[in-house]
Prior knowledge:
With 276 residues, this protein is an alpha/beta fold. The chain has eleven helices and eight strands. The chain has an eight-stranded mixed sheet with strand order 1-2-4-3-5-6-7-8, sandwiched between helices. It starts with a strand and ends with a helix.
Amino acid sequence: MAIVEINGTEIFYTEVGSGLPCLVMHGGLGFDHTGARPWIDPLGDTLRLIYYDHRGNGRSGRPPLATLTYEQFAADADGLTQRLGIQQTAVMGFSAGGAIALHYALTYPERMSHLILVGAHAAWDYTHEIESSLARFPTTPEQLAAFTVVHPKTDDEYQQMFETIMPLYYHRFDPAMNQRFLERVAWSVSAYHRYNELIVTHDVVARLGEIRAPTLVIVGRDDFVTPIAQAERIARGITNAELVVFDRSGHMPYIEEAQRFRKLVREWVKRTTASL
């Protein structure tokens, strides 16, 4: 693990495995890379996994919040690959990291070899779908309040808010598995609030056809945050895209159906690399 200076801030990264370079873009925002590692690390037999924390998140620097933009996140990712001497990289983006991955693909198309999107969205224009999806879940008053009236002011309050709503992110909630997901997160409430401002500007639907890299779009059937319709929209828009639905997963199929997820990614990378 290391910290490097990129575009005026410190970027934390760590590497696992060897093979095709792959930037791993975490979601949140306000989370970090650690939640993916226990389940994604085994892909190090196929990919050179480069986990990193976006600026303002996790163990990376805390530059002015105004610098947390999609354009800057993409530039930071490109700066990191250049620092590591990588000419082309795969990108695996989770949730908000999937949105950043789309911006990276559109800004630096020559730098991307493969694109893997998990629980991603191409625009934030479907809150009615989220409300409809959420209505299918049994929710507590505390969980509903976390979505509507809770405005955390500290990192600890942000952590508590997400721990309240996390059961809704799964097909079947497993407290021990969830604890493993959250136990090493370095929370950032400021990045969370900044992302709530930023997300409303995210709309690349009309530009999806510009993406030429082989693309794998993965979504859980019970994902209320990014419902299947949003994954389908991405897959329709990107010419060279494949869509796979995980029937026993919510927002994080790489956790709930970990073995199937890793098998799928290994086989897809091997097949698409051979065809390039």
